[in-house]
Amino acid sequence: MGGMGFIHSAECEIMHNSALINIHMTKNASQLGIPRYFFSSSVCVDRDMQPGEPEMSEAEAIPANPDNEYGWEKLYAERMAMAYERNRGMQVRIARFQNCYGPEGTWRGGREKAPAAICRKVAEIEDGGTIEVWGDGSAIRSYTYVDDMVEGIYMLMQSDLHGAVNIGSPQYVSVNELVEAVAEVAGKKVHVRHVAGPVGVHSRNFSNARIYSLGWQAQFSLLDGIACTYPWVEAQVQTFRI
Residue 208 gets which letter from DSSP? Predict the structure, then answer.
């Protein structure tokens, strides 16, 4: 997994390694007679959008224009998985994830996603301290807590839904609002210094109608999820300080 820093600095590695992993996994699953195969894709397959644009369905990812190579590789791997379903009889289910986060996730080293990165930065400062945030903090995201994601995957795998299915929280927030949520959970006053860095798309507004049709609903608000995630990240920070 990788945050925006990794996605923008390791394009060759992402395309090469991800393609090989997915080519071999899909082929070997088919050869071994696996009856049902799950592929974890990403809403990174979608184009850059502006906040407030109408939500896009899964089918509207084509014609394609992802803003990074990670998204392009995911689209290719989706197509390959669907080809195996058509030609080899293996049932395939595809979920497009939207910024999954939670305890036990990567929290340092450059591959962590925004929720873990902000949790780490806030945990590292004293009350009233300052953290750095890439860009102006206005980029809009949806962050999906890991328990909700796992429940969505399980329900999708038990279903008859073919093709890509978005799984994500319907709560859209800016990066600045993410910082505010982490600060609230931490009980700290946090100042932000906006600095140059890879930000990614302005927004991704995606429809969850297909996963909703199975009865799935996100149970964790951003504040709920951060309340579960921040203490774990804070404990890691304290452990590695010793």
Answer: -
Which of 37, 70, 143, 145 does the annotation list as catalytic? Answer: 70
To the question of domain 4-241 being in CATH 3.40.50.720, the answer is: yes
Q: Enter the pTM of the model.
A: 0.93
User: How far from 55 is each of 38, 95, 230, CA to CA, in Å?
Assistant: 25, 17, 30
70 tagged catalytic = yes
What is the percent of the chain with per-residue pLDDT over 90, rounded to a whole number?
90
Check pLDDT > 70 for residue 186.
yes
The residues near 219 (Cβ < 8 Å, ≥ 6 apart) are 145, 147, 148, 151
Q: Please give the helix or strand (H or E) that residue 32 lies within, else none.
A: none
CA separation, residue 17 to residues 30, 220, 228 (Å): 20, 33, 32
Read off the pLDDT of each residue in 216-231 and give the average, rounded to a whole number.
98
